[in-house]
Design brief:
This protein has about 40 residues and is mostly helical. It has one helix at about 5-39. The longest helix is centred in the middle third of the chain and has 36 residues, at about 5-39. The termini are far apart.
């Protein structure tokens, strides 16, 4: 395997992880907002 391919693969996983964490925090904010509306 080419070393560069391994680096690119790691970068892709890091990018996906950041996007997942960002969406997760946004999703939690939406849930907390909905819970506040119910009260």
């Amino acid at each position: 395997l080419i070393p560069q391919a391994h680096i690119i693969d790691r970068m892709i996983w890091a990018f996906l992880f950041v996007v997942f964490m960002f969406k997760g925090s946004k999703f939690r904010k939406l849930i907390s907002l909905q819970n506040n509306d119910k009260k």
